[in-house]
Amino acid sequence: MESDAVDKILLQWQRERSDLDVSPMGIIGRIGRLSKHFDRSIQEIVSEFGLNGGEFDVLATLRRSGQPYQLSPTELFNTLMISSGTITHRLDRLERADLVKRIADPSDRRGTLVQLTDRGFNSIDRAVEAHVANTHRLITVLDEAEREVLAQLLRKLSISFEE
Asked: SS3 string of 2-19?
């Protein structure tokens, strides 16, 4: 198997600190490097739709929530694991672009819901199609069995942090 940049880092640590088992650094380092590659590729795709990654995430969250494609700002920032200030900024920009609208929450006079507009619905549907095609392209180096094993292992690791 070919070596990657992380292999070089691990060899350097092995040479300098042979007393340490640095193998976990390889896993975490590769996940971090891959995350940067994936983020860059995803940003290229969503920018074709006039969005940044955060705005795409908001629209995608609303779209996958199902009809009537609306959530409270609190549900959005909890789902996206961002601050209330960050969600407000994103919603302001998306509202100016007529991709979402804020409406009164009928179950809470003080509350607000965020809903996809028709334009937002159409935009996110096109963007998601391009995003899904891109995600397939990004992992073409793995066969189906490798993808399943990797998905299971990453799920196990993810759950350990979410418990």
From this structure: CCCHHHHHHHHHHHHCCC
**Digit-coded pLDDT (tens) for 107-143:** 888 889 999 999 999 999 999 999 999 999 999 999 9
Rounded to 5 degrees, φ, ψ at 70 are -145, 145
What is the rounded CA–CA span in Å between residue 81 and residue 24? 26
What pTM was computed for the model?
Answer: 0.88
What is the domain extent for residue 97? 50-162
Residues 78 and 135 occupy one common structural domain: yes
Encoded amino acid at 105, one letter: D
Q: Which residues pair with 105 in a beta bridge?
A: 108
- d(CA 127, CA 64) in angstroms, rounded, equals 13
Q: Please state the φ and ψ torsions of residue 69, each to the nearest 5 degrees.
A: 55, 50
Same domain, 40 and 54: no
